[in-house]
Specification:
By secondary structure, the protein is of the alpha/beta class. 33% of the residues lie in helices and 18% in strands. α3 packs parallel to α5. The mean pLDDT is 95.
């Protein structure tokens, strides 16, 4: 262990005895849905995925959720642990993780009314807003059977080699549904009073402990802040935590928010560490270790949470997609080499919601461990990369890591390209860590860097291969008056070259249009400070109120600018945004009074403003500033010049296809190209 690291991150790196198990540090890889179980060889895919994280140094891995029975699956193909033989198929995963020195727990998750199946069940027959199926109200016999099935699933996991189980009691799934009056309208022994509403989770934990004995590690994931109306107040959460401890839990993990909540919980608009005090409240109520989770993505933040006494352990899920070797890098004093999660959700949650296996924007290898090689190149080549944006940096660093001799040419004085614009959007300053990571990789792997230099065909002769990653430039529409002084491009606004006035018209409502709108209306304090974020979204920062809400999350807030977004399409503005983040951005802009217009025809720009036509009626959008978010043009003139000279070249990223500012595709293309060279 690096001496400096051992002192700087003393608590994060310290071991912990829990139950009958020794954890080598305080870092848990939190549970997440992966859909790796749906791949052609699901065991091999899951084994490769989990083993890489175990090899990376985490102390404990919690798998994605396994249902204890057929009616509790998230969808028809969802994994289950009710069959002992099927559970045994998971043993190679457990054995391989143990070989790397980590513990592994299977999460037991009954989806309740979130199950996307016709036969879903719940404490009361109340349909979830995010599910079309109305659940059947569980009979007393159903409840008792389900408790028994949780215990049986835990026993199956134990027999397969798992060190323990995490009982999912948060995020609005079945157990959580029993605990709050929002979803539990029962008048029998399983509803009404808090004592009755807590009975189901307590009996589940008790049954698992009785069935599996003292050796099984039991984690209970409690909802530390429901973020819904009629959610649990702090005193009920604390009481439940104490009951769960008494029933046999070894660790209490903290979950934040229901899936139907209208408060963002893990996406980039949420400040890092926003929920730590919710964990601290739980920790104050019990004597067993408590885990802090959600928006903890750096070693510095994790250490601070532990040092302050807010928690005993740190759960990181998506950060382990971004960098499976997070823990080892902290241990070895290489924190600057951590590929930090940017909370974009684009290749994790959005992939899952579209039926794809999980991956990561900043680390395409995640979930593709057997597909994307981690081996050196067989033949070392001389490679030139032109353009230092996302695609260029990914290509150059991956090629150099594999042993190629790489030169990177960038016309500006710094690396980053379009990422330097994206990072200006509130919350997307997370890209600073991506830039730090790539710049460190450039240095570490010996990329020959040429900044402030526009590469010519002559500069590129003599290379075995040239990669064109020259990116995009803003598209200027053919519109009368587009050269008016009040017109600016999105690049000028986001870069700070131009400052928008108090009234703004945004032409184009794609991803960049929404980014610009966020930039124009969101106070800096909200993106960087938990208190301002809580005020905007109606969250009780003391986590004492029912559901931890002090106001309506949808309530309007005062804005500093009047902004109108316009698009030609007749569809709802923002339809193309990410599934897991689009609703956040749309709601945030509505809260700040941003007007969104579709079906617009643009006629001209003059001193009066932007002249448009909607439904055959002409009107003028009076604006101090008119921002063009009308797409991009690929910059690939260099490619044609190289081909004319017979120099082998490949185009990647925005230079290949100018669709929005797609860092996900750019980095993936760059990595894959580098692996093919």
């Amino acid at each position: 262990m690096n001496t400096t690291a051992s002192s700087t991150y003393a608590r994060l790196l310290s071991p912990l005895k829990v139950g009958r198990h020794e954890m080598r540090n305080r870092i848990i890889m939190g549970s997440m849905h992966t859909k790796l179980e749906c791949k052609p060889d699901p065991i091999a895919a899951q084994l490769a995925f989990y083993v890489e994280r175990a090899r990376g140094g985490v102390a404990l891995i919690v798998t994605g959720g396994f249902s204890p029975n057929a009616e509790g699956v998230l969808d028809a193909q969802g994994p289950r642990l009710d069959d002992p033989e099927e559970a045994q198929a998971l043993r190679p995963i457990c054995d391989a993780v143990h070989h790397e020195g980590a513990l592994i727990c299977a999460q037991l998750l009954h989806a309740g009314r979130y199950a996307k199946i016709a036969g879903c069940v719940a404490p009361s027959p109340i349909r979830a807003p995010i599910n079309r199926h109305i659940p059947r109200e569980m009979l007393d016999s159903d409840i008792l059977r389900t408790i028994s099935q949780f215990a049986e699933a835990a026993a199956n996991a134990q027999a397969a080699g798992f060190d323990g189980v995490e009982i999912m009691g948060s995020e609005g799934y079945l157990i959580n549904e029993f605990t709050v009056t929002h979803t539990n309208k029962r008048e029998d022994a399983w509803g009404g009073s808090a004592e009755n509403r807590h009975r189901f989770p307590v009996e589940v934990v008790r049954a698992v402990r009785q069935r599996c004995g003292p050796d099984l590690l039991i984690i209970y994931r409690i909802s530390a802040a429901d973020l819904i109306e009629d959610g649990a107040p702090a005193d009920e959460i604390a009481a439940l935590a104490r009951k769960v401890e008494a029933a046999g839990a070894d660790i209490i993990n903290t979950g934040i928010g229901w899936h139907e909540a209208r408060v963002p919980t893990i996406a980039y608009p949420v400040p890092r560490g926003a929920w730590r005090k919710a964990a601290a409240r739980v920790r104050a109520a019990v004597s067993i270790p408590v885990v802090a989770s959600n928006r903890i993505s750096t070693a510095e933040m994790a250490e601070d949470i532990l040092a302050s006494g807010d928690a005993d352990l740190i759960s990181m899920a998506r950060p382990m997609l971004a960098d499976p070797f997070f823990a080892n890098k902290v241990r070895d004093g290489r924190v600057d080499e951590i590929n930090t999660c940017i909370a974009c959700n684009q290749a994790c949650l959005d992939y899952i919601f579209s039926g794809r296996a999980v991956s990561c924007l900043v680390n395409p290898r995640a979930g593709r461990e057997s597909e994307l090689r981690d081996t050196p190149a067989e033949v070392r080549k001389k490679i030139a990369v032109v353009g230092g944006g996302a695609a260029g940096m990914a290509t150059a660093t991956e090629a150099a890591r594999r042993g190629h001799f790489v030169s990177l040419f960038e016309v500006s004085q710094t690396l980053g390209g379009q990422l330097t614009l994206a990072r200006a959007v509130p919350g997307k300053n997370e890209f600073d860590d991506t830039l730090r990571y790539f710049r460190r990789q450039v240095d570490k792997h010996g990329v020959n860097l040429h900044l402030g230099r526009r590469a010519s065909p002559e500069d590129l002769s003599g290379y075995d291969h040239v990669v064109i990653a020259t990116g995009v430039s803003p598209r200027i529409p053919d519109l009368p008056g587009v050269d008016h002084p009040k017109v600016a491009t999105y690049a000028e606004i986001l870069s700070g070259t131009r400052v928008a006035g108090k009234t703004v018209a945004i032409v184009g409502a794609g991803g960049i249009g929404f980014d610009v709108a966020e930039f124009l209306v969101t106070p800096t304090a909200e993106a960087n400070g938990s208190e301002a974020f809580f005020d905007t979204w109606g969250v009780d920062g003391n986590f004492s109120a029912p559901g931890a809400l002090k106001a309506d999350p949808q309530a309007p807030v005062g804005g500093t600018r009047k902004v109108v977004m316009l698009q030609r399409k007749t569809t709802k503005p923002g339809d193309g945004l990410g599934v897991s983040t689009g609703w956040i951005v749309r709601n945030a802009l509505r809260k700040y009074g941003v007007e969104m217009l579709g079906g617009v025809s643009y006629e001209r720009i003059d001193d009066e403003g932007l002249h448009i036509k909607i439904a055959g009626r002409r009107q003028v959008i009076a604006a101090d500033t008119i921002v063009l978010c009308t797409g991009q043009e690929s910059e690939r003139a260099l490619h044609a010049a190289l081909i004319e000279r017979g120099i082998p070249a490949t185009v990647v990223g925005g230079a290949k296809e100018a669709t929005e500012l797609d860092a996900l595709r750019a980095i993936d293309e760059g990595i894959r190209l580098a692996q093919s060279l």
